[in-house]
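Please decode residue identities from the backbone states below.
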């Protein structure tokens, strides 16, 4: 298919002075896969999608995965990947397992990085087989089939199958697995937008790719609002829009100073479309309520301390305390510890 780079974001890196908090690479992908697993497999591994009996709900085997004990990677690098192990039902009636590994990192995927990923996938496969071969043998059944899928977020091109090989003097092991080079969609952005009309996981991919491109805060506001505008226009119901909106905001984290502008932009979209799903807005309103409650509590406590030490206060003093900000209230609360007069409480 012809490239469509003009319709979507450029592939080159973007820099800016306003940094955002460190992105959480692990959690949003895990949540996205749990919420939209069927749609993810349909979009990223269609041959696998066609042989699964989707009338049987997928079962996420988080405890099984943790028990395998595969190391996260070199210390000090943070979690730059997400792993999911899922049990599904094959159309022939047998159970099958799907291992999904999502690699989220910047830069290219060189030979060393691909080799590390292949080794990790091989370790998973051998540990899964070793752990369950005894259990299945005692139960008199064959071990489940295992499909391994690696999603390479930063990779723009490469083979759709990666390999792990260990050989010596004509002996060794060979393992291959399916790989998705997610950043190829940067050159097919219009196609991705079209797919997102019926497949919500395409929205997740767009959010992740924008987060990968816009690593700093000053230029994230516009792409985030644009993606929310697209989401609102797709006609999804509330059950889809709310988690997708949360994932967009999670992957495309904005600096705190940009949240009011984002809120205002999305409120305008809501007014146009008569819908309300904004999670950042909810957080801001909640935060304001908490801050207001905390300030009111500080004022009440300070008034009680003053009245206990100096007696009743007039309306002007009470008004001054109740309209004060948190910083003044904190300073006055410290002053009262050694204040000899009411005036001393308000010094400084």
């Amino acid at each position: 298919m012809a490239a469509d780079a003009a319709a979507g974001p450029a592939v080159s890196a973007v820099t800016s002075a306003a940094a955002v908090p460190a992105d959480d690479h692990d959690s949003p992908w895990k949540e996205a896969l749990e919420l939209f697993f069927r749609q993810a497999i349909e979009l990223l591994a269609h041959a696998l999608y066609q042989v699964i009996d989707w009338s049987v709900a997928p079962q996420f085997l988080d405890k099984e995965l943790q028990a395998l004990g595969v190391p996260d990677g070199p210390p000090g690098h943070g979690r730059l990947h997400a792993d999911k192990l899922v049990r599904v039902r094959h159309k022939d009636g047998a159970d099958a397992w799907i291992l999904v590994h999502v690699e989220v990192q910047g830069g290219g995927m060189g030979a060393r990085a691909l080799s590390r990923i292949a080794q990790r996938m091989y370790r998973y496969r051998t540990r899964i087989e070793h752990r369950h071969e005894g259990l299945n043998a005692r139960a008199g059944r064959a071990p489940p089939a295992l499909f391994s899928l690696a999603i390479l977020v930063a990779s723009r091109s490469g083979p759709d199958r990666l390999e792990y090989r260990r050989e010596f003097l004509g002996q060794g092991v060979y393992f291959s697995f399916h790989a998705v080079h997610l950043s190829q969609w940067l050159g097919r952005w219009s196609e991705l937008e079209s797919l997102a009309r019926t497949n919500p996981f395409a929205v997740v991919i767009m959010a992740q790719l924008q987060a990968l491109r816009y690593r700093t805060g000053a230029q994230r506001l516009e792409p985030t609002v644009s993606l929310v505008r697209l989401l609102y226009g797709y006609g999804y119901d509330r059950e889809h829009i709310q988690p997708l909106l949360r994932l967009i905001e999670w992957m495309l984290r904005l600096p705190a100073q940009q949240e009011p502008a984002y809120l205002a932009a999305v409120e305008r979209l809501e007014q146009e479309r008569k819908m309300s799903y904004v999670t950042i807005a909810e957080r801001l309103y909640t935060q304001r309520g908490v801050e207001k409650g905390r300030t009111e509590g500080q004022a009440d406590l300070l008034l009680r301390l003053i009245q206990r030490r100096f007696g009743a206060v007039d309306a002007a003093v009470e008004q001054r305390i109740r309209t004060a900000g948190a910083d003044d209230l904190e300073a006055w609360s410290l002053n009262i510890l050694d204040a000899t007069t009411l005036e001393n409480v308000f010094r400084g």
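Observation: The chain has 14 helices and six strands.
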